[in-house]
Amino acid sequence: MHARGEKYLGHMAGPAERGRFANAMKTAAAKGAIITTHDVPDCDGLGSAFALQRVLLKKGAQADIVTGPPIHLTDPLVEKLSIHTKRWDEIPELDSRPIIVVDTNTPSLLNGMGRRKNQLLMVIDHHLGSGACLKPVFNVENQKAISASEILASVINRKEIDMISALALAVGIAGDSERLSDAELGTLRIFESLLRISGASKREVDALAYPDNPPAIVAAILEELKRVKSALYRNTVIAVGASALENPAILANEIRNMGAAVVAVLGAQGNGYHKVSFRVRFMDAWKGGIHANDIARRASEACGMPERMWGGGHIDKAGAMIRGECQEITDAVFAAAKEAIDRAAGKQ
Ligand SMILES: [Mn+2]
After folding, report:
1. Residue that wins the pLDDT comparison between 338 and 309
2. Which of 1, 6, 86, 330 is the most exposed, having the fewest neighbouring CB atoms within 10 Å of its CB?
3. Residue 85 maps to which CATH number?
4. Cα 324 to middle of ligand 1, angstroms
């Protein structure tokens, strides 16, 4: 599968991306780095941030992972690998290390970061560009990759990926690709190489990527499911709900896992804003052309949000912070979802 002596595990990056990555790492090795990922960090974001941090720590650089508040979804991974993350309020304003962002390119998904003046050294991401984008010195993007972790496995020299980094990246890939059931061959090859290096089984990786919800959350989800509104449109199920859980993504994931194709869940923030999590079933996004980031952006726009605050994310997972009443946002989401389904049908 891989020729002996090949320098990289994966092919989700070419010479240009590898060159930019190497240049950014030179700077980060000298100056240190703050590594961050999108709000509501997931296994892909944390896994790829962790692998990157290990490379930098081995070079003697001061590298911290700094994120918004985590949710229980990543607890098993964090515990298993002893991933140490800091909150943004633990980073002094005077800390001038450059910032590296993994797994997002959307400013509105980095609310925790605030308006830091630090240099934005590098963005490593796999989402389709839409709306406002970050402007880093070095951009390492591949929209064909279904996870940031497989891009990392394609730009970090394979000699620098040890057992623990390999496990982190394998869990990142598994987390972003729905148990790999629909993954492309290239992704599966990277995943298998990482699995071999990590010494873990696929079952162990799945358990870290898809942990069970604690009982109190299961009970809350069941209550919130009763109030979910749904529509069957062009043989596609759209579902929109509201959640008081720590993050609306939890309920959104559950509804998507029940088989709804297009899902949005609103979480009231208590300041006139709703955090909205968008989910599209992997195959409906990947093959069907219905894109969660597109729906997030259009719903934000329809609710009168300024462009710099339009939501975004991946084609199957996206988020937005939208000002407005629950009903107004729900209507806008249904309309944006129907438009997205219409457009996808028109293209086929
Ligand atoms: Mn990702």
Report:
1. 338
2. 1
3. 3.90.1640.10
4. 28
